[in-house]
């Protein structure tokens, strides 16, 4: 089996409401999504999505994915998509780094592999847990009552995990946000306080120690792994790392040096499922729990993450995400993984189980063959 054609689609995915990160420093209103269709000489077709969270969140942007695919297309055409590590190697030799541009191709190869072997991706990865994964909401930064209002909206949809975005330079305001949300947290709820790199070491020290009695978990409380390693020395709260977890080497360093208790694995940031599963294994081997999710995007991106999340042992998985619930566009009506009773559960169909409606995607912006 060989990859015979690569079709690339661009689609804007508007957010239902404006969204602020880092305590209000960064604003997002629309996501620039790239969808990739791989067609094989056997007739099997696979899909993958790459949707960065805008271009100010991490070093990734929509045009970069499409330019990367243009560069890598010749290295991918003619390969057997079931041999995911050979495809990975070919992309890495053709274009070092740029992991986020490789993810949609890698994910489409896994979709084809599942269809070829008659297994959903979760089972192809080794087998799924029986239960789905809690879906975490993503709670935009704002005043404490505004943030609690968003959590209440998600509660009505069945969510019991939440990622609340903090990280303002006004440390007293962040302390107020955290205390207010914790005071109103239900006993069965998980709330992660996501700083998205916004704090300096000093600000992290002040806020995390001021709420140390609450025992809450903070995500990416500093810009770099070096910053977080230093923050770790002067604080006691559990720490999750996501933006600074890009490569397998990052995962090994975090585990070896004890920089964090939790990995935030985002499939597109780390380069797709082939690379993400290795980071998962490092986590399991070192007693590190995980959030597994997309960087953003449609039901397809959520479904990709749901498959990997469901292979993580129960005691290691914290939550996944249903970014689709923040969008005004659904590219795959009637299929893919949806948040039901607060859980994301991978389907039983072979492969990804989420083919988009091509009429919604429009014409391809590029075809390589
Ligand atoms: Mg995060």
Label this structure with key terms:
single chain, 369 residues, alpha/beta, Enolase-like, domain 1, TIM Barrel, eight-stranded parallel β-barrel, 13 helices, 14 strands, globular, binds magnesium ion
Structural account:
This protein is of the alpha/beta class and 369 residues long. It folds into two domains: 3-118, Enolase-like, domain 1; 123-344, Alpha-Beta Barrel (TIM Barrel), CATH 3.20.20.120. The protein has 13 helices and 14 strands. The chain has helices at residues 62-76, 84-94, 99-117, 121-124, 144-156, 171-183, 201-210, 225-234, 248-257, 267-270, 273-285, 299-309, 358-361; strands at 3-21, 26-40, 45-50, 133-139, 161-165, 190-194, 217-219, 239-241, 262-266, 289-293, 317-321, 339-340, 343-344, 366-368. The protein has an eight-stranded parallel barrel with strand order 4-5-6-7-8-9-10-11, surrounded by five helices. A four-stranded antiparallel sheet has the order 3-2-1-14, sandwiched between helices. Strand 12 and strand 13 form a beta hairpin. Helix 1 (62-76) packs across helix 2, helix 1 (62-76) crosses helix 3 and helix 6 packs parallel to helix 7 (201-210). The mean pLDDT is 96. It binds magnesium ion. Magnesium ion (MG) is lined by residues 194, 196, 219-220, 242, 264.
Strand residues, percent: 15-25%
CATH architecture level-2 label of the largest domain: Alpha-Beta Barrel
Described by strand count, sense and barrel closure, the largest sheet is: 8 strands, parallel, barrel
| Helix count from the secondary structure assignment | 13
Q: Enumerate the strands of the largest sheet in spatial order, edge to edge or round the barrel.
A: 4-5-6-7-8-9-10-11
What binds here, in terms of ligands, is: magnesium ion
Query: How much helix, percentage-wise, in residues?
Result: 25-40%
Structure classification = alpha/beta
How would you state the average pLDDT, rounded? 96
**Unreliable stretches, pLDDT < 50, 5 or more residues?**
none
CATH C-level category of the largest domain: Alpha Beta
């Amino acid at each position: 089996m060989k990859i015979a054609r690569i079709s690339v689609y661009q689609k804007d995915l508007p957010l239902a409401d404006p969204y602020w990160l880092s305590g209000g420093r960064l604003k997002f209103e629309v996501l620039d999504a790239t969808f990739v269709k791989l067609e094989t000489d056997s007739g099997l077709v696979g899909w993958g999505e790459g949707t960065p969270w805008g271009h100010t969140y991490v070093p990734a942007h929509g045009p970069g994915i499409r330019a990367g695919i243009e560069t890598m297309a010749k290295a991918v055409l003619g390969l057997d998509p079931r041999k995911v590590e050979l495809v990975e190697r070919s992309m890495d030799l053709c274009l070092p780094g740029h992991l986020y541009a490789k993810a949609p191709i890698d994910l489409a190869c896994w979709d084809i592999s599942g269809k070829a072997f008659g297994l959903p991706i979760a089972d192809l990865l080794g087998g799924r847990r029986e239960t789905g994964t809690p879906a975490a909401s993503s709670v935009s930064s704002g005043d404490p009552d505004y943030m609690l209002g968003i959590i209440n909206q998600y509660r009505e949809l069945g969510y019991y995990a939440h990622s609340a975005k903090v990280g303002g330079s006004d440390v007293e305001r962040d302390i107020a946000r955290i205390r207010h949300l914790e005071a109103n947290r239900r006993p069965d709820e998980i709330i992660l306080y996501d700083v998205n790199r916004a704090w300096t070491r000093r600000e992290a020290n002040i806020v995390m120690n001021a709420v140390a009695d609450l025992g809450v978990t903070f995500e990416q409380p500093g810009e770099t792994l070096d910053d977080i390693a230093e923050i770790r020395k002067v604080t006691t709260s559990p720490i999750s790392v996501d933006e600074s977890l890009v490569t397998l080497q990052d995962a090994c360093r975090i585990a070896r040096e004890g920089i964090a208790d939790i990995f935030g694995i985002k499939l597109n940031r780390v380069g797709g499922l082939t690379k993400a599963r290795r980071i998962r294994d490092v986590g399991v081997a070192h007693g590190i729990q995980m959030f597994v999710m997309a960087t953003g995007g449609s039901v397809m991106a959520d479904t990709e993450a749901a498959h990997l999340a469901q292979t993580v042992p129960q005691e290691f998985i914290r939550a996944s995400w249903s970014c689709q619930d923040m969008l005004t566009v659904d590219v795959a009506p009637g299929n893919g993984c949806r948040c039901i009773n607060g859980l994301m559960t991978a389907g039983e169909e072979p492969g990804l189980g989420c083919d988009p409606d091509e009429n919604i995607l429009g014409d391809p912006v590029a075809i390589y063959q």
